[in-house]
Amino acid sequence: MAQAAKTPVTMLSGFLGSGKTTLLRYLLENSKEKVACIVNDVASINIDAKLVRNDRNRARSDQVNTTADLADTIELANGCACCNLQDELFASFEQIMALADKRGEPYARIVLENSGVAEPQNIRDQFNEAMAAGHPLMQRVELDTLVTLVDSSSFIKDYSTKLPLASRPELGDGGNMRPVVDLLVEQVECADFVLLNKVDLLPGGVEGEALEQLSAIVSSLNPLATVIACEQAKVPLERVFGSSVHKVVAHLNIEGQHRGAVAAARAAQEPGSSKQHAETRAAQRFGIKSFVYHRRRPFHLKRLQDTVLRWLPVTHNKAVEPAAASEGDSPIKTVLRSKGFMWLSNKHTTAFYWSHAGQHFEIREEGDWWAAVPDEEWPDAASGQRGIILADFQPAVGDRRQEIVFIGAGMDEDKICAQLDSALLTDEELAVYNTKWSSLPDPEHEGAPM
User: Fold this and answer.
1) Residue 77 maps to which CATH number?
2) Helix (H), strand (E) counts: the chain
3) Domain count for the chain
4) Looking at the structure, do residues 190 and 91 belong to the same domain, yes or no?
5) Rounded to an integer, what distance in angstroms lies between the CA atom of residue 356 and that of residue 338?
6) How would you label 147-164 residue by residue, b for 16+ Cβ within 10 Å and e otherwise?
7) 125 near 251, Cβ under 8 Å?
8) Which of 62, 189, 328, 343 is deepest in the core (most CB within 10 A)?
9) pLDDT digits 0-9 by tens, 391-425
């Protein structure tokens, strides 16, 4: 017997007020398909029960009052599909599927509406982990599309702030000390579609330069996404929610997302590519471009701190505040966003992740380099992941590398690279490093270059 098709899940992200509920209502009012909803921002749609309304209720009146009048809706009692609430989140999906089974009519799609401060990357990871663990629910549903809504009128303000979420309750209840800009960037980058809502509130509206600039910035932050400008969250539904839509990011993890960003930045610099032409137009008008810094030796931590990190985070940049920006004493000050993997000389096995956006900068541990991971802990060959991992390997160093994507306005790539190069180990220091770690060789990996 053929396995039943999985029900696709669309996840809506974005700060409170960005238009998630408006989009959801627009979908439910205009879709010809049977859609179910799991919601977080309960108060905004006036839902007061876990399973509200059914088909007979909806047929009873032409007057639509809440999202729940339009679809079978489940609310998350704790109001957030956070990383520590996987059991409740998946239980909500199981309730939806049980309801479909009872009626003998499957849903065409399930829409998960996140709270304003939910982290889409964490929720995507929950689905990936459940799939890898063989969770029974994953035989019936799959995360299909990630959609982020952005309030176009407040994007520049939110990107430029250094305030934490806790100080901005209007963006969503339950915010913590995470910087606003850090979550904003995650929402934009962890999306297959970025909907620039409320464009009518921008100077010049849909025909103005402000929208063109915002589109260029968002497209640079997430080159894998389709960016759509809209008013009142009205978008071509088949384009965003259709079964044949182009979606990539929903099926990636952070490592795959990074590879996609690197590939897009490199493609943009290839003569004759369509990406390169779009990049040139943005660069000519606003000076926005991207490049990849790639090296195969570690940073000297103290020199990195002295020559580069002291200039981060960038308090002003030309992409979002052209009148106030100044290059100052460092070319790093022209950077809007930078992200990627780092190799530090004080840790041989640990990969670090460099993340800078607006006035926020951090370096965090991101697990071990694959070279240091025993072969039996690698993904199995059937998954296709092994070849992707080995593509990053070089003799002696494995997948250890500096691979940082830089996005900015008026950037001088040569100067930025020169400043970063000055923080790399010298030949003499590298010889000492290799001697130090030679007593702890990496595990052997079949197919790795020697």
Assistant:
1) 3.40.50.300
2) 15, 12
3) 2
4) yes
5) 5
6) bbbbbbbbbbebbbbeeb
7) no
8) 189
9) 999 999 999 999 999 998 888 999 999 999 999 99
